[in-house]
Amino acid sequence: MDDWRLNDFGKALYLFEKLGHLLDDIMIPQGQDVNGSSGSHRGSSRPPLRIPILDLKMETENLLAFWARALAREVGQEVAPYHRQIASLAAWMQARLHVFADAPAATVAAEEIIAQAQLLDSIFADDTPVEGSCREMAAACRQRGHDLSKSTIHRWVHDGLIPSRIVEGVVIVALKDVMSRL
After folding, report:
1. Residue 171: in which H helix or E strand, if any?
2. CA 99 to chain centre
3. Mean pLDDT for the stretch of residues 15-24
4. How far apart are CA 170 and CA 165, in angstroms?
5. Mapping DSSP to helix (H, G, I), strand (E, B) and coil, where does residue 122 land?
6. Where are the domains of the chain?
7. Are the beta carbons of 181 and 160 closer than 8 angstroms?
8. I need a surface site. Which of 35, 69, 134, 150 has the fewest CB within 10 A?
9. What is the Cα 47 distance to its own chain's centre?
10. DSSP string spanning 56-114?
11. pLDDT, tens digit, for every residue of 63-110?
12. What pLDDT is attached to residue 35?
């Protein structure tokens, strides 16, 4: 494996260490209590977990566990950990990265793990605008796990709870002001 690929492999593993545990935080919808109930919702049901995030978590855990065992076997290292926590597996692989670089399957492992890390990074990438209309800021809050409507933001503006300005007939608010009210 060349040095550039090894560097990218290390960065991907570091990203898993840093963001792996955050998947658990965003998997459960905001507003649920410890029993998993979220109060009464007329005419609708809400799943207890965000299934796409659960799928991503399981896929990532399985990928890291598979490559940790495969690379450990190829280079004669001790057995990889049996638990499937993303951050722990990534840290274990990161500590043995230079040993794994010599394994025949290391390039394929690096490509798959780098691609999965990019997917995970895109989930947590902060590309939301700093300010925008009430509708845009409500959508940005929902991306962050807060169930907030544009009507609530309009009410806060009307009540003077958050500063706003009007541009071409559109009420513009700052995301930081909206988030500070939550």
Report:
1. strand 170-174
2. 29
3. 87
4. 8
5. helix
6. 3-124, 131-181
7. no
8. 35
9. 19
10. HHHHHHHHHHHHHHHHHHHHTPPPPPSS--HHHHHHHHHHTHHHHTTSTTHHHHHHHHH
11. 999 999 998 888 887 776 777 789 999 999 999 999 899 889 999 999
12. 53
| Structure-token pair, residue 163 | 């500063």
Q: Which residue has the higher pLDDT, 12 or 145?
A: 12
Q: Which residues contact 60 (CB under 8 A, 6 or more apart)?
A: 16, 20, 23, 86, 116, 120
Backbone region of residue 77 per phi and psi (left: phi > 0; alpha: psi in -120 to 50; beta: other values) = beta
**pLDDT, tens digit, 9 for 90 and up, residues 158-182:** 999 999 999 999 999 998 899 888 8
CB-CB contact of 96 with 10 (8 Å): no
At position 50, the amino acid (one-letter code) is R
Sign of the Cα torsion 123, 80, 92, 106 reads: negative
Q: In angstroms, rounded to a whole number, what is the distance separating the alpha carbons of residues 89 and 83?
A: 8
* Bridge partners for 172 per DSSP: 133, 165
Chain segment 104-154, per-residue pLDDT in tens: 999 999 999 999 999 888 877 766 678 999 999 998 888 777 889 999 999
Q: Containing H/E element for 172?
A: strand 170-174
Structure tokens belonging to residue 70: 């495969």
In the block, which residue shows the tokens 């169930």? Answer: 147
